[in-house]
Queue: 3 jobs
Job 1
Amino acid sequence: MMKTTTGKKMKLCAFAASNSKQSINKALVTYACSLLSDVEVQILDINDYEMPIFSIDREQESGQPQLATDFLARIAAADALVVSYAEHNGSYSAAFKNIFDWCSRIEKQVWQGKPMVLLSTSPGSRGGATVLELAQTSASYFDGKVKATLAVPSFHENFDMEKGQMTNEALRQELLSAMQSL
């Protein structure tokens, strides 16, 4: 059983930084959380946090969206975070970046000191490694405590979407190790 230092069941907040309805990163993050027993997991869908594109002008005219405050509250309620990043042109998806930008205007320390496992995947051989490196590098600036990272290459060759599980045993073991670091 994974417990916090107070002896309570660990609460994980997990999400894919992708707004695709068939997101392979959501499949990966969901599977990753299933590898831990006796934890409370909340899988967020960033589509539930769609907001206008951030701009200083919009913020001055309309204030900060309630959805950004709600997203930060989900992070605050968790003991640890698991995020799987989609790579769009070598960077974050626009949908995630927009949520992050709004949240950082409310609370610069977006990750709120939480231990984190950062993941990425793609159909390609690098598995989103570029965006994962970017996320890992920036996490500490926003008060994230990265415990482990893993880029899963060639997603469709290593993961069975029908069964929702990793088919490559070596990658499964790496993922399990990453998750146990929490």
Job 2
Amino acid sequence: MAARPGDVPQPQHLHLPGWVRRAHGQARPILADLIGNLTGEPRQQFAAHVGELVDGMSSGKFSLAWQYPRLIDEGWALFERQRRDAEEEARKRRGLESARRRVADQLRDAGARLTPETASRLHRTLRSADGVDAIKGVATELDQAVAAVRTLEEKRRDREIDRTRERIHRALPRGAAAEVPAESWQDALRRIAENFSE
């Protein structure tokens, strides 16, 4: 938001020279724009410097008008620094949101495997994460939860395979059970894959 030239005070002196009025008139819109484009502490600091310069000229120190170019350069330097800081902050924010989105996608993909309580807790933690490290912590916790679920699924599958094998052995006649070689389910899958590849 640009400041109006009226926001920059006019030097008040009974015998203000014309060259000071001209110098102030030329610098006033630039100073007003700089004050208007700055925010926070840099704005207060720059406005105070402008006020000090104008007050000095109002008290009769007309030679201070020669400091307008230096003051304008100072304002530009503050503005550029603030712009760079804003860009850096925006870059960090984009990186944070990108990391948050990636973990949210992983959470969505793993949602069917997780318990509703775990999924909602991880979602809450992810939404409240205020840094990349906190988001990485959620990703690590998600990986651990998915790994635990996978381990349980594998154990459950192995138990089901063992039960099925037992039922098959019980269903076979006594003499046929002795002829069937005991092979693991991995060996059986490998044998089946070899038969299909021929």
Job 3
Amino acid sequence: MSAPANLKYTKEHEWIRVEGQTAYVGITDYAQSELGEIVFVEVETIGETLSAGEVFGTVEAVKTVSELFIPVDGEILEFNAELEDKPELVNEDPYGKGWMVKISIADSAQIDALLSADEYEKLIG
């Protein structure tokens, strides 16, 4: 399982890549492998401002449906429209083309409270 060092992670297996005051959010390589084949990603929170830990959408695999949690306070700016036709991108490239939402960060200080790659790797063992 990979956990790129340039990302931050949550205990719920989301990652965040910060680019200034915006960020991309998705699920980790570990999460996608545990879920299995991803068949659908649903995000109905575009334009909403959510608090860290709130549900921003769901990911559906062949065997289960899991909620997706926003890692920091922010507004959901964009859903990765490519996932509508190709949800398998989450399995194939979870840290790249498989990103799920782009957000506007409300409080960048919250980033520091998230897990580093090393801390996340220790969490998943």
